[in-house]
Amino acid sequence: MAEDGYPSVNLMDSHATCPPVPPRLSQGQQCARVGQKALFILVSVALCGMIVEACLIHRLYQTECVTSASVSKIIAEQDAATAAKLHSPVISPFKPLAHLTDGQDVVHAKDIMAWSTDADPPLYKIDYKDRSLVIQKEGYYYVYSKVSFSDTGIFHHRVDLRTVKFTGKSINLLKSRKYSNHFKHPEQSNSYLGGVFHLSRDDAIFVKVSNTSKIVRQDLSENVFGAYMI
Ligand SMILES: *[C@@H]1O[C@H](CO)[C@@H](O)[C@H](O)[C@H]1NC(C)=O
Predict the structure, then answer these.
(1) Atom 7 in ligand 1: which residue has the minimum CA distance?
(2) Which of 124, 90, 94, 119 minimizes the C-alpha distance to 105?
(3) What is the separation, in whole angstroms, between the first and last Cα of the chain?
(4) What is the pairing mode between strands 224-229 and 139-150?
(5) What's the gap in Å between 45 CA and the centre of ligand 1?
(6) What is the chain's pLDDT, residue by residue, as a tens digit (230 residues)?
(7) Are 96 and 136 in contact (CB under 8 A)?
(8) Which pTM does this prediction carry?
(9) Ligand 1 centroid to residue 211 C-alpha, Å
C-alpha cells in the first residue's frame, strides 16, 4: 500500500504486466461496425454498377449513332442507284436476254420479220443477225413474240428455230393461226406466242408470218420479239 493510502504501485504493476488491452467493444458497437462494412460494400457495388451502366449507355448511344448514320447512308446509296438505273439505258443483267421491237430501220422479208437496232435494244449475250436472235450460251430460254396484223384471210404467226443440229432446216417452236371473218373490211388483231425451249450455242430463232405486209406498224411496241434465259 502507498503511504498516501492509494494502491498506486500495485495498480501500476498490474498495468505494467498486462499489455494494454484495446477497449472491448460491446455487441451493439460490433453490429454497427459490420453494418458500416456492409454499407460500404453495397455503396461500392452500386457505384461500380452505375459506372458500368454509364459506360454501356454511352456505348449504346454511340452504336445507335453509327447505325442510324450507316442506315441513312445505305438509303442514300440505294436512292442514287435507283436514280442511276432509271436514267441509264442498259444495266448488265445476270443472264442472256433480248427484247426487240419494230422501228424505222426495219425492212421485213416476204414472210420473215425484221427487228430494229436503232433504239439500242437490250441485247445481252444474244446476238441479232440476219433477222434472227442467235444464242451464245446454251440453256433454257423463254421465247416470246407479239405481232399486230390486219388480214382478211388466214394469218399465221410463228417462231422458228434454225439450228446446226438440223443443217439448213428450220424447226417450228411456236405457232398461231387466226381466221378473219371480215373478208371485206379487215380488222386489226393481235397474236402473242411464248414458251420455254432448250437452246444451244449458235441456234437462231426468228419470227415468221404468212405475209409481213399485213403487219400493223402504227406503234413501235406493237410488234415485239424477245428471249431470256431462265
Ligand atoms: C401479201 O400482202 C400484200 C398486200 O395485201 C399482197 O399484195 C401480196 O400478194 C401478199 N403476198 C402473199 C404471198 O400472199
Answers:
(1) 213
(2) 119
(3) 124
(4) antiparallel
(5) 99
(6) 444 444 444 444 444 454 555 555 566 666 677 778 888 788 787 876 787 787 676 776 565 544 555 555 555 565 555 555 555 555 678 899 999 999 999 999 999 999 999 878 999 999 999 999 999 999 999 999 999 999 888 999 999 999 988 776 889 999 999 887 766 677 889 999 999 999 999 999 999 999 999 999 988 899 999 999 99
(7) yes
(8) 0.61
(9) 6
